Amino acid sequence: MADITGTTGVMIRRQRDSWHGFQVLVDHRPSGGIGGFFGNGLASFSAVPFAVDAARDADGRPAGLVADEPATSVEPVTNEKRQRLSYAADVDDFLCIWRWDDWNELRIRCVGALPVITTWVNGLKIAELDTAVLQSPDHDAEAVRIKDLPTGSLEVAP
Question: Edge-to-edge strands of the sheet including 116-121?
Answer without folding.
Answer: 87-88, 124-130, 116-121, 106-111
